[in-house]
Amino acid sequence: MGIFDKKKFAELLALAKGNRSINQYALQCGVSSAHISRLLRGLVDTPPNPETIRKFASKAQNGVTYEELMEAAGHINSSSQAIKQDQPNEWQPQLTEKDKKDIAKTLEEWMKDLTSAEGLAFFNGEPVDEETKEYLKDSFEMILKHARLMNKKKYTPKKYRR
User: Fold this and answer.
1) Mean pLDDT per 10-residue segment, the chain (162 residues)
2) At what angle do helices 22-29 and 50-58 cross, to 10 degrees?
3) Cβ contacts of residue 78 below 8 Å, gap of 6+?
4) Residue 150: in which H helix or E strand, if any?
5) CA 34 → CA 10, 37, 94, distances in Å?
6) Residue 154: enclosing H or E segment and its boundaries?
7) Backbone angles phi, psi at 64, to 5 degrees
């Protein structure tokens, strides 16, 4: 396995993120914003796995490629030959339109509960501002999507995986 170049990986990831916030990029990629932040700051000593890198590359801006990220992570060498692959042909679940509608419905219910008088609408007697509500909504949405994908991956019988 090659060497994980934290600095180069952080530079490529910042380029891939573009002008989006870390939270926006994380939501689009389906990766934790905290993990992206730690990678950007060079605080992670082990490289992300190829599947996480594929998620980064799928939503990358500024022409950043999967191969560039894999090389910086040390998974492939500079001649683009794979050193380590994490089952690239492995089935990956996708959200259907029904899943997206269910998530939107659940999210709407949670936000309604959040803003009700009995909910978390107040913090130390102060009402929660709109920006905080948006952050919570984005976080809830990412959690719901991630949970749905993890459940699909775990509980979908192999005969239905295509």
Assistant:
1) 86 94 93 94 92 93 91 77 51 88 92 73 70 84 90 86 72
2) 110
3) 71
4) helix 130-155
5) 14, 5, 23
6) helix 130-155
7) -70, 130
DSSP label at 47? P
Q: Output the pLDDT for position 32.
A: 93
Query: What are the residue ranges spanned by the domains of the chain?
Result: 6-73, 97-160
Please state which CATH number belongs to domain 6-73.
1.10.260.40
- What pLDDT score does 14 carry? 94
Token digits of residue 68? 């560039």
pTM of the predicted model, to two decimals?
Answer: 0.50
SS3 23: helix
* Contact present, 61 and 16 (Cβ < 8 Å): yes
